[in-house]
Amino acid sequence: MPNDKDSLGPPPPMSSLPDGIAGDLVRLMPSDLIFVMRFMGESQYRLQSHFQDFVRAELAAHGVSTETHPMIHLFIENHAILLRDFVFCGVSLSRQFRVDEIERLTGDTTSMIRVDIWDQLKSHIEAAEKQFQSQASALPDLLSAFEKPGERMAGSKNDRRVR
User: Fold this and answer.
1) Residue 42 to residue 26: CA distance in whole angstroms
2) Beta bridge partners of 96
3) CB atoms inside a 10 Å sphere around CB 76
């Protein structure tokens, strides 16, 4: 999503603090971090199977079956996954816990959860930045569609103007 910073020129320099953006995120944890439930494994399979049967039965009631529509199983599976995710997401969002509640529940008086999260944030931020940097040389060609009309260099392989 574009924001006002997109048009302000180069971004400000990275934080010179040793913990950088990971430290900023950890400091925001009391207000911004929530823990939610996540259904895994057999629960996902069972609910998805239920919705596959449900969608199949609803379609059959309307005259649609694998005999009339041989590729309908892809539609059924896709919609079963969407319905499953809708249910689990709704339930998860209704049961949120803040970091201080989790620390209290687990007896974490030393804030080790926050330290572990900071360590993982720092590691994943570095990995994401390295991944982006490894692909950055290909970006100018990929982003040519975003250039202002007439800004493309004449004779370049991206020059699509009619002459």
Assistant:
1) 33
2) 36
3) 20
Can you count the helices (H) and strands (E) in the chain? 6, 2
Give the integer Cα–Cα distance in Å for 160 and 156: 9
- Angle (CA) 10-15-115 rounded to 5° is 140
The pLDDT profile of the chain, 163 residues, written as one tens digit per residue, is 556 555 555 545 455 555 789 989 999 999 999 898 899 999 999 999 999 999 999 999 999 999 999 999 999 999 999 999 999 998 888 888 999 999 999 999 898 999 999 999 999 999 999 998 998 888 888 877 777 777 655 555 555 444 4
Confirm whether pTM is higher than 0.70.
no
CA quadruple 54, 59, 64, 65: dihedral, nearest 10: 0
Q: Which two tokens stand for residue 19?
A: 């913990």
Percent composition of the chain: helix, strand, coil (DSSP 3-state, to 5): 65, 5, 35
